[in-house]
Design brief:
Oligomer: single chain
Number of helices: 8
Order of helices and strands: HHHHHHHH
Length: 192
Amino acid sequence: MLATLPTNPNTARPQALPAAAFYQEFQPLIRRLIRQYADDAEMRQDLEGEIYCRFCRILEAYDPSRGIPLKPYLIRMLTAAVYTYTRSHRRSRSREVPFALATPDGEAPVSADPTPGWDQGLMSRDVLAALPDAIAKLPARQRQVVVWRYYESRSFEEIAESLDIRPATARSLLRYGLQNLRRQVAGLLPED
């Protein structure tokens, strides 16, 4: 039996046309996505299979009753899905630590001295411990704006409305509050 195409090929997938045949129409897009996002041969091979799987899932999830044309929907969703997949793949690969083999003479490779990182960590802990006291020493309005902005994630418009001031004034109060905090915390940092 031959596949019958609907009157508008952008709005619905032909029911008799399998996903693999419909997938062939999108080969230029797929080749472009692979070129754009795959760094090496292994990634190109993984990405090719991943794109097909995601294409099939997106095609199954398509709802023609929403009134969105099929081809633009597939292009948009597939591009976003491939970007998300490659981004997560790169992020996980950047967190991986390669297995370090021993040197030819049988000794383990010498690693870098970790103490600068430890020193930085100790300084950060000292600053974090002193931060509540430093915030408490700020003038009332500066303290309120710092707390609302960084601890409660309020927008400048919300802060301005609560304090009955303009948003630009709220920004200024935050800037001055942060300058005061830097001055107070600067005494804790070692001088070079």
